[in-house]
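Technical note accompanying the year-one report. For the benefit of new consortium partners, we illustrate the data format agreed upon in the data management plan: each record pairs a sequence with a structure-token string. No post-processing was applied to the example shown here.
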Amino acid sequence: MMKTPSGTRADSPLFNALIMLKLPIRVFATLTKACSIALLTLLTLPAAADSPELKQIASVYGVDPSREMVAISPNGELLAFRTRDGDKDLILVHSLKKGKNITGAHVGEMDPRRLHFVSDQYLIMVASKETRLMGFRGRNEISTAYALNIKTGAIEQLLRPGHVIYAGQQGLGRILGISDDGRKLYMPAYVPRSKTDRQPDYALLEVDIEKPRHPKVLEDGHSHTVDWFVGRNGKVLAQERYNEDDYQHEILVRDGDDWRVIYSDNSPRTVASFIGETPDQNWLVMLKEDWDTGRVEYYRLNLDSGKQERLDLNRNDSDIANVRLNAERVAIGITYAGFNPSYHFFDAALNDRVSKLQAQFKGHSLYVVNADSELNNLVLYLEGPSTAGEFFLSQKGQPVRFLLSAYPGISEAEVQPSVPFEFKARDGLVIPTLLTIPRVHAANPENLPAVVLPHGGPESYDRQEFDALVQSIAARGYAVIQPQFRGSYGFGYEHWAAGLGEWGRAMQDDVSDAVKALSNVGFIDPDRVCIAGASYGGYSALAGAAFTPDLYRCAISIHGVSDLNAMLEHEEKDLGEDHWVIEYFSRSIAKNYFTPERLAAHSPANFASGISAPVLLVHGEDDEIVPIEQSELMLEKLQAANKPVKYLPLKDTGHSYGEEPVRQMLIEAVLAFLDEHLAPSGETLATVGSEAD
């Protein structure tokens, strides 16, 4: 029987939260799937007997989505999506009226990452690849836009390096505006003034989608131009400039043949992002961080007067995650952060409609991922306790229609359910927490081996979503605990502000208190807990092993920070001592007061001799966010202290879980390490294919 501090199971808030797991899993079973798109044969997974258990789990949960990037045409009659099946990698366009696929393209080598219609005849595919580029340091994200003609099936690259634009540049996939007839696209790129120009300016071009090889330069740009804002039919609304040398940030508008400054700021503490325009195109939309409060606030900037207006769109229990933009960069609403996204759309009818859809899918994360030009047809993406990811279509006045499964190889029985839970930290602060429970134990989660998994950032947050690593760990039989420690984003200002200066201190206490709270109610076995995480979560994993050595049986750091002084030196060398990122570190790590001694006192590498738990270090060799030297230093310190440690460098991988093969290798390594240190002798843990109900 699970016990609470007061002695009764029924008194436990955790128990009350877990009751939902005993409800029918398919909360949206009434939705029709009769109209689902007829696609390729579903991928058949290899049987568990064909490969070792860990490889089987990694192959199931570590895959890329088979169906993704669903987009709808402006008239609401066509759907486009990417589908992978074996060696087939296709973009398909489906007619809702005809009920069949009408065109498509093989895109394996192109590898598109975004899809959107610019008209009912043309689909834009934005391909993106991380590679090395001559003249640029490290690996860079290179993007290119292609147009697929729905009628003919022909594909054209929109901007070609060397054709008017500069040959060596990164981002060629941005479309800032579309003409009313859908034929002209307005795109930014670096354009040299001569054949010998090696410092081209960021210009604005007009691209004829039917004849894209000869783009027209609309505006030449300036040496400090970083963005353009475009209205209807190519009318230039504004130009954004930023000078890194003196932090000069400006918005300029046309004044005859000249440019007039309507916004100017040169404070390194101001973090303002201009991201789009209002529907009337009289204002720019700006997100600005209040340095004193840390909150991101929604503003608009008048394009005539330069007047700034703050719209009070923040909430006490959440924070703005992003602004919703349509295909022409017009703001239509706000997304709020949290375990599940919530929305505020500026159109009242749309706002009411989306609220009702969220109620229909209660307990899951519902994303509005695409819409037609009139916002009558919405493409929805759903993930959560009973689905790895599914696309639905909401047509105004019609029942919701199922479209596609993102992961057709992952059945409902193989999705490990998650549930939000709260507990009070030692100082009384409420810590929102996400629990993922092995489905085989969902009916009676008691005394489970567990992995506490603090997120990265640290100004980030976890979501109720499909996460390959979380799902793999839970499928192996371990409960996964994701505490939103103080300093996490998405749960209001007070929760964020409580984390200032608390790296390795109160932030780490919150993680420790999560383990203790769940041990006290009998949910987890306190003698079988591992701590793991990536980036800041990797730091937290090492800090947990170093500063609370009796709490954990093992620790896993993925791309983690081990030495705060060395990390700060890396940032100063890379960015300069007076860069705003350095000031951010000062505020975040030490609340604007840090010394080398104070940073050293919270650096796990300096306490390797006190670590008793075995440690697994994983790091991408191409990581430019947290350099691999951070893990190599920790490895050196642990080996010098004769501590048990394993090291896994990831080739051709940056600050992420990497591509599918690398991700699956990482999952196998993590599960093998957990089994070695958490699984009691003779116990059989849950595996893929175990009975779930």
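Partners are asked to follow this layout when depositing records. Residues 1-51, 132-139, 689-693 have pLDDT under 50 and may be disordered.
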